[in-house]
Amino acid sequence: MRVVSLVPSLTEAVAVTLPGAPAGATDWCTHPAGLDVVRIGGTKNPDTDRILSLAPDLVIANEEENRPPDLDVLRAAGVEVLVTEVRTVPQAFTELDRVLTACGAPSRPRWLDEAEAAWSAPPSPPAGRRRTAVVPVWRRPWMVLGRDTFAGDVLARLGVDHLYAGHAERYPRVPVEELRAARPDVVVLPDEPYRFTADDGPEAFPGLPCALVDGRCLTWYGPSLVRAPRVLDAALRAARR
To answer: Which residues are 143's β-sheet partners?
Structure first.
């Protein structure tokens, strides 16, 4: 089975489970470390000719990360394309199982069972009190988590309700002045897709607790799901008022 992955988290899931399966992956597929496959461009601008030259048995994609016109080109050339939709933690487990089965996994990998166990009883919020958050995912311009996102569901299961969960858009642009005025209990700053750091992000929210979090634990659905509850909970607790 020759697989090309257009989704970084799925690349990691397949490569960890079936090391010989990945033939190509995007430039943003950074895990597992040392992944040695043909690079086929970005998630939004893959080189479809290069993908076809690899003669893949399957291309795995995601409805949010990849563009339908690129996938249509691959389908028109006779390539099977599996498109995932992941907007909740339970949906991630279902889709991961589907992807790995399609890629030829003979059985369910142990890490997937461990991830489900980790999320079956995630850490409770401090003192049992839910907190509010804003979650920037880009800075120029400022964009935040909106409705119906995987990362939003991850936070909700850890006792954190982000304030734009009811927004009409999934990733709305919101002026930083409005984000400050919302006075959330915590500002969650992941290190991807925009790389927020201690020197680039917290200074925009004076007087508000900021949690710098591992972006893979917040937004990737794959082996990182095993450690995500513990890692995110620690970062959120460290950012208490």
So the answer is: 138, 173
**Model confidence band, residue 125 (pLDDT cutoffs 50, 70, 90):** confident
Would you call 190 helix, strand, or coil by DSSP? strand
Q: Is the pTM value of this prediction over 0.90? A: yes
Instruction: Using pLDDT thresholds of 50, 70 and 90, give the confidence band for residue 126.
Output: confident
Alpha carbon of 7 to those of 4, 34, 137: distances in Å?
9, 17, 18
Q: How far is CA 202 from CA 11, 14, 103, 184, 215, in A?
A: 31, 35, 42, 13, 16
The span from the CA of 131 to the CA of 161, in Å, is 6
Architecture of domain 3-108: 3-Layer(aba) Sandwich (3.40)
Rounded Cα distance, 167 and 190, in Å: 20
> Do the domains 3-108 and 124-238 sit in the same CATH topology, yes or no?
yes
Q: Right CATH number for 124-238 from 1.10.20.10, 3.40.50.1980, 3.90.650.10, 3.30.420.10?
A: 3.40.50.1980
